[in-house]
Amino acid sequence: MPTPIGNSMMLSTPSPVRRWLGAAALTGTLLAGGCDSVLEVNDPDILTEASSPASAIALRNGVFLRMTQAFSAGGDAPDGWFLLSGLMADEWQSGDTFQQRNSTDQRVVAETNSFVIDLSRRAHRVRTEARTAINSLREWAPAPASNIGLMFTMMAFAENQLGEVFCNGIPFSGIDGTTIVFGTPVSYDSAFRRAVSHADSAITNNGGANEARVANFASVVKARALLNLNQPAAAAAAVASVPTTFVYQLTHSQNSAVNANWQQNINLRRYVMGNGEGGNGIQFRSANDPRIPPAPAGLPPLAFDGVVPTVAQGLWNDRASPITIASGIEARLIEAEAALRADNTTLFLSKLNDARATDTLLTVLTDPGSEAARVDLLFRERAFWMFGTGHRLGDLRRLIRQYGRNAETVFPTGTWFKGGAYGGDVNFPIPFDETNNPEFSGCTDRNA
Amino acid sequence: MRLGVPQFLVVGAILTGLTGPVAAQTGGTVSGKVTDATTQAPLSGARVSIPGTTLSALTSMEGRYRLINVPAGTQSVRFSQIGYAAQTLTATVTAGQTTSLDAGLSPTPYRLDEIVTTATGEESRRSIGNAVSTVEVANLVATTPIANMNDLLVAKAPGVVVLPGALTGGGARVRIRGNSSLSLSNNPIYIVDGIRVAGDVNSTSNGIGGSGPSRINDLNPEDIESIDVVRGPSASTLYGTDAANGVIVIKTKQGRAGATVWNAYAEQGYIKDYNKYPIAYRGWRTGTTATTNSTAANTVQCLLSQVLTNSCVQDSVTSYNLWEDPESSVLGTGSRNQFGLQASGGGETVRYYVAGEWEKETGLMQLPETFQARVRELRSISEVPDEQVHPNRLRRVSVRGNINANLNDKMDVTLSSGFITSALRLPQTDNNANGIGSNGFGGPGFKNYLVTLGGAERNNLGWRQSTPDESFAMTNTQNINRSITSVTFNYRPTTWLSGRVVGGVDFISREDLELCIRDQCPFVGTNRLGFKVNNRTTFFNYTGDASLTANYNFMGIGSRSTAGVQYAKENNTRNLASASELAPGASTIDAGALLSAGEATYSSVTLGYFAEQQFSFNDRLYLTGAIRSDRNSAFGNQFKRVYYPKVAVSYVISDEDFFPKGSFLNSLRLRSALGAAGRQPGGNDAIAYFTPTTVSADNADTPGIIFSALGNPNLKPERSQELELGFDANLLNVVNLEFTYYNKNSRDALISRVVAPSVGAAATRFENIGQVRNRGVEVALNVNPVNGRSFGWDFTLSGSYNKNKIVDLGGTPPNLGTTNSDIEGYPIQGWWMRTFTYEDRNGDGLIALDELTVTPENEYIGPSMPVGEFTFFNAFELFGRKLRIQTLFDAKTGGYQLNGTERIRCDNRLNCDGVVNPNSPLEEQARAMAVRVHAARTQAGYVEKSDIIRFRELSATFTFPDRLARTFGASRMSLTAAGRNLAKITGYSGIDPDGGYFGDNIGVLSDFQTTPPPTYFTFRLNMTF
């Protein structure tokens, strides 16, 4: 600062040098005071410790959130695997402007598709954090054991789902404390075997009031993985004791992740229901099947992009609507498939009709008369019963892999309704971000 | 006690002072008057100093000064003022007596003797080894159309690229010498009267789709005296961690001794949009089914791609531009009103500057009468609420009180305090399904478009889905109450020793409100059910700064030693509340059926020590060495302290005897600096942590914990090192040339390293593994060819070139995005896509899919930031220099921009020329085909050069004759008419390459459904009493 003009009031002060020394002493004090405490900050938003019985339960609860984030819930983006995998299949069509969704619907998914990157990470978080929760539960809250069993089941569910959506060469990495442990890519069959193994661990590490529920959930997940491994008989055996009335649901709420199927199909209309998409697709809307009721009236006539007509379902018409991810119905469908593969048409129809008997609006099925038609019937039943729950892409892949169908006869094909032609993807590529894993070098193949 | 390096340096510096000479404590007084040598007018604010001592003074309003305690004997007295050639006179001082010494300074663009503010205090420009740009604000705001702080910086300093906002109250992006950081903010930091203040961009918790407000725009330009732009790490070293992107040092106006001088001003203006907006097209067809027959109530079309495959036949193509139809367009006329009063004066002991201002700017967006009538009818009301008619408005009141007091002849204290209260409305725009852009640019190519929503059919008047009344019903308001207060205490116990203590706080209370009253908003999601958001955030930025400076001068060798300590703390807390599904007519949180709440905290502390030693030789050669050491709460626990060193040399070679005299080269200074500064990571980036959250488990909300961050205990600041070389030359006393070359390397660059998804952890983790380089040159040419009594002419040409390059990604894979990627050897966030060529081989005037050739892999297209910027400022003073006419042109070159608006029109809205119109240019058809039909879905055709020359400012200021001014009771009166954003030349096919919104860190501009910068016309009356 400049010296002021003229003399101002003169105060009685010590000598300038002493005053200066005082200032120097003050500065020195400040310097000496530069200890760690000055740098301490407090951020109540985070927790650096989670080591207590209550924390173990909270970590368990956190895995529920990770499950919904990966599969069934979503805000604006991404959407959850149930939606995105159904978009590649024939359950949903894009009513959106985002290339991430449009290219998925068109079956030309890039490795840099940010939705796939994010959802891949979310699915793996279920595994990683379930493992963390298991370790914490074992140390701090081992009873009831069903909590541990549930975590194993969720790990198995995620592993199976990863195998159903991704190409061959899926890495399963993890963390040890805060150290990354990179995993070597494995085939999707290996992913399914991991799922079977962890489902078995769930059944073994079980107990308490929720034992039966967790066991049923684990059994269905195990059977689903066994189906993917083309072991229908073993799958049927796994779910034999699961009652038809059993359901396991992911739930949503206003204060947690909202139901993505509601959000994207009814609320934002970035997805419209598939209705005979690409020629091969099932007419999910026109069929007027009671298992997929129509949407509430009054929705805007056009989807989010302002061009595609709105086609919406009424299964999930609220942000908090739960989504069933495993059920006794699925158990019966698995048994039906096992019967079909065993050439027991009577049992096949019986199992399908056992499931249909739970809905009074459904009629009894009769034999369609041919092997191919029975397969069509089975997968159509599965498609309607488990619409929007992440089963359809895996089923289409199984039709190719296990039933010898051609990809162009099961996936939407031909001219894509928004312009251009459908691509040839039958699964999702492992995202480019995985190249940060030194063990990874890309999909082994893109086969079904 | 064992001393660490910083303590040693500080003590060393103090000891240097202790061994200095004991100056005479009983000196004499030097006083006099400083005038303009041409006009003889007194010069207020000129600096008078005794080189090599702490003695200096500013002249009063009458040009008078007085230096006391001047050591007896022969003393050199230096007089300097911005825009004038400095003068050094000799005074013979006798103890106890007053020596009279007057000076007349000649106008010149010579700038070496200007005073600039540095981290260690104020210094003469000639002693600094860096180029520092100074913007003299006080005169600018009175004579040019300056609406906010960012306008002040646009095209004012080479190397500083400012992207101004397009909306009233919208934010701006400031980049100094390019982007240095791959993952952290590239924004400069701001210092106001010695303390750090918040300068965040996109400062809002309620996004509008476009750029949010910039906090630096809270400051009132009318209160600013000058701005020094410290451009690179070599200059900003002593500002420490966080200063690597440059520092903008702002000084507010201070009182000057003399009778109270009142300045009153009033500004009125209007805002218009003269830009050309894109036209919407529709291809009509006739068919037998609902999906093949075009009607006014559907979106069925026959597109060119379908024509080519014989899928349909176009009956006709219609076009409509709703932006040009007064019944439909929201582009109205905005207005600007500003009134202010300033008082400055005081005595020898206390001086003051007090000011107050009221400002209102209403943006040009407004609800057309057609829609107002519709709203009145629908709601049965007589008048549409003003916030829904004028959704973009800023009201602001600012007051400032600055007081300087001399406690005695060795001590003074300055209190600098400003308070701002503002209310800003922002419309829903840009990347926003509820917004004006999304619905306006996406509309069908005809006006009477019938849409059924909520069970009722209405005519959308060319809008896609939501109409403006619905978009504007979604109100977004930000209320700011902000106080910036600092106290500076100076103590000069001897003529060779001075101390300075600065303390202050920047406090901001920010309230972000968003409201949709039930049944008024767009049919997007659940908005129609109503919602309210009320987020309240408080920001505290504390600064404490203490330093000692010792001066020594012996036989022409000067020494200046400074040591100090600085403490900076940032602490932000936010409470968030929202409600949806509101009761009809309700507008409060508690009226919602679904409630949500949250809180967030951010804290960061920096403790830094610095020391600087400068030696000068005969006031012409200056050697400076400095070091700063910082500790920061955000560093990893394995990393304790960072050191930023600096060396600089400044050599006024023209002062040497051997330098040829009388040549055309009047002065020449060579300068060079090498220094480093840093950029701190985020507050929690070093920590592994969990986050508590709410979980829905088995149909019940329950508390949960999720693992959120891996952390990095070795985390340290990003370090930017810069070498700067340059010279300043004065030619023929009328030309001042500055040239600077810089080479800035950001080592230990913090990369938000992607964690492989299969790990199942956080998406990224910060690691110090990258390197980014920015190299460039900056040139400024100030010319004052005519400086007569009746006519004056001056102009400035300046330019800069910056080459940005990612040198090293630390072994990580490239960061690939859909359109922008980080790849070694190329600029940060360059444009990378599959490119294409096309040829109308069959000559049918249409581009078919097989006439398009797309590359198999992504290719580099260009940088996302301009690499060159040039400005031309010219001013004439006519009629006895009573009329000043000035113009400002600026140009940006070398950058590329994604025309995202056209991309979505062609890709999704299906209303662009290239998709519908068979007479459209082949290029339009090709890029539409590439993005919409080809499997690559490449947007490369919409990435275009963003080169632009803009006629930025034109103003004419007439200073009334004194006699006329006196009839109004004023001593001086002037009237300014000005225009801003008057014209542009660009090959960019979008509306304006400067239109768009940007993200926080890198700041890539997204021209996506955005409105462009409008044109301002203002008229301003200034009166001095």
Keywords:
heterodimer, A: mainly alpha, two-stranded antiparallel ribbon, globular, B: 1025 residues, 13 helices, disordered N terminus
Shape of chain B: globular
Biggest chain pair contact, residues each? Answer: A-B, 113 and 132 residues
Overall average residue pLDDT of chain A: 91
**How does the helix and strand content of chain B classify structurally?**
mainly beta
Structural class given helices, strands, pairing of chain A?
mainly alpha
Q: What would you call the quaternary organization?
A: heterodimer
Query: Which regions of chain A contain 5 or more consecutive residues with pLDDT less than 50?
Result: 1-14
N- to C-terminal separation of chain B? 61 Å
| Shape category of chain A | globular
The tally of helices of chain A reads 15
* Computed Rg of chain A: 28 Å
Biggest pleated-sheet summary of chain A: 2 strands, antiparallel
Number of distinct beta strands of chain A: 6
Helix content of chain B: under 10%
| Number of separate strands of chain B | 55
Output the strand order for the largest sheet of chain A: 1-5
Determine the strand fraction of chain B and express it as a percent band. over 45%
Largest sheet of chain B: 22 strands, antiparallel, barrel
Extract low-pLDDT stretches of chain B: 1-25
Strand fraction of chain A equals under 5%
Mean pLDDT metric of chain B: 91
